[in-house]
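thread: overnight batch results

M.L. [08:02]
morning all. the overnight job finished for the chain we discussed friday. pasting input first so we're all looking at the same thing
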Amino acid sequence: MLKFVVAISCFCLSVNHGQAQGAHKLSYESPAEKWTEALPIGNGSLSAMIFGGVSEEHIQFNEETLWAGKPHDYAHKGAYKYLDTIRQLLKDGKQVDAQNLAMQEFMSTPLKQKPYQPFGDIYIAFKGHENYKNYTRELNIEEAISKVSYSVNGVDFKREVFSSYPSQIIAINLTSSKSKALNFDLWLDALHEDKTLETFGNTQTLKVQVKDGALRGVATLNIKTNGTIETVNGKLQISNASKATIYLTAATNYIKYDDVSGNPEKITQKTLADVASENYKKVKKKHLKDYQSLYNRFDIDFGDNGKSANTTDKRIFDFWKNPSDPELIALYVQYARYLMIASSRPGTKPPTLQGIWNDKLTPPWFSSYTTNINLEMNYWPVEIANLSECHEPLFDFIKDVSETGKNVAKEHYGAKGWNVHHNVDIWRGAAPVNHSNHGLWLSGSAWLCSHIWEHYLFTKDETFLKNNYTLMKESAQFYTDFLVEDPKTGYLISTPSTSPEIGGLVAGPTMDHQIIRALFKSVVEASSILKTDEAFAEKLTAMIPKIAPNQIGKYGQLQEWLEDKDNPESHHRHVSHLWAVYPGSEINYEETPELMKAAKQSLEFRGDNGTGWSLAWKVNFWSRFKDGNRAYKLLNVLLSPAEIPERKIRGGSYPNLFDAHPPFQIDGNFGGASGILEMLLQSHLDKIELLPALPDALADGEVKGIVARGGFELSFEWGNSELKTVSVLSKKGQSCKLVYKDKEIEFKTEAGKAYAFDGFLNKK
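M.L. [08:03]
and the structure it wrote out:
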């Protein structure tokens, strides 16, 4: 094993050294003028957007637990009394009446969830810096550090900003090449109406109270400098310095969805006290060691045609007209990994629709957790891209909503177990919100539980499975109570529900049945592995074939609903009934080729346009359909500029590579990266298939540290669209089946041992 590890380390060093200047960097020649040009940093809980201004730097920051609202049970007491009536109305074809009754008697109280909030802003004003030269701005994602440099009157000024997970601070380091040339004013501010600012010595503290909410936040910054510090008009004024380091931390009184008794003053004071004696060099070293322990596990290289020398905004614009920038595709994958590490670390909350970055008091879609695809899509690349620990916040989230979801199951459905609907805020409301025509969707708990099962499949960690099995079991218990027999077909169906977010309230949407079947099968298998709940597993096994099956409709399409009523002219962004193709696996070429054909027809009908996350989902679909060129065509759209008026497609990328719904949604970044990796490796069918959907545009490349189900870590290289070499590190000693085109090899492995093969899968 030692020889394998050393070989990998040496390889990564050589690849990094040989890559072009654009590798692992987003770069720009001017400051950001708007938020979607600013550069993101984060440590899982404390984040910021760096604008890189010259005369005035603006750093807008967030802390993940600052939300509107207060602890609240969103369940609608006694809603279950109307369940049978709503079902009967749908059975009678009275959809509007069913939706109206559901709006009155079945939806969440209150009807809307609460929004994620921005925290505050750091401003740094530099005297006499209006006329500057040699400006550069970058985000080095290999270091997780934002950097700015420029010169004024022959003096070089540099800035570095990062968010440290081990130190729980945002660190800002400023230097000048000339003694006493660094002069600036520093202050905090916030959009919140209820705010106070206190300045004392070399510190400033911002306190905010969320309007009409239970949460308050405290942010304190501390500055160290070799210049002088004065307080002038509520601002810290630094003069005659050549270096200065600012540490900022923030906290709220949030402890849990039902507990807001925290002491943010105490937390911030302790955090800053812990780093008070540490200089910038030491804090940075700790940050790099921590961050790179995750980031450096994986490397990807598609070659470089010279375009990486251009700034990132120009590369995105050029990709629209000429999608030939292989290094940009590799950068996009690594940027998604960077964003995952920045927004989802053990002990933190999962990324919302906007990750942990938000600058609005009323953000789009409340910047909440949308569980009918968006939250789950955030985690699609986490296992395959070798960031398994970053999955943990989602499991914590599932535990929370399983608790609140039990009351929802009881009050809304008279059922055991737990359930969650399509949108959740920090108070973990699991009831249906917004409107019955899309909010009364039933598969949330089952879809979330698929992440528990997938984590087990990738890691083969039985302790993890044992610790989380009850969440899966109790979700399945809900559906055993909820499913009812359809009088027309005799099948068990999900009603009332929706096919997100199209078609209104219905009985028997295909997506529900696919996800529930997958849950039942995983619980049955988990119970066998753990040797528990044999009777319950038998019950699920008996129910599985009774659940309404996938059906092929009159247009040769996979039906989205129980009835054959799909509109082939619909180009809706959701393609929910293809869940069983991806992220599920029930529909596949080996076991259900006719259903794969029908699913592809459905995707053809939907078309290649879409919002950002929808485009990303389609990249994954086409990868599963093993059509790499079609998947790449969608990548061309996803990585094209979102704000060019002549583009008719809404989705794309902003200058900072954020995904555009529009506006910004982070799910497209994660889903797009997942789709790229699905081109290179698929392991959802008890085998590891190499280069299953390689597009012509990525004919040469190599990937290191990519992960397959079964506890395998792979590294492989290809050229002229042909596999050259592959190595497999077995972490759990499972049997391994490798497949490449018509070649196949199956072999037993030992935990911790590496196995090497050539492009014909001959052992080396």
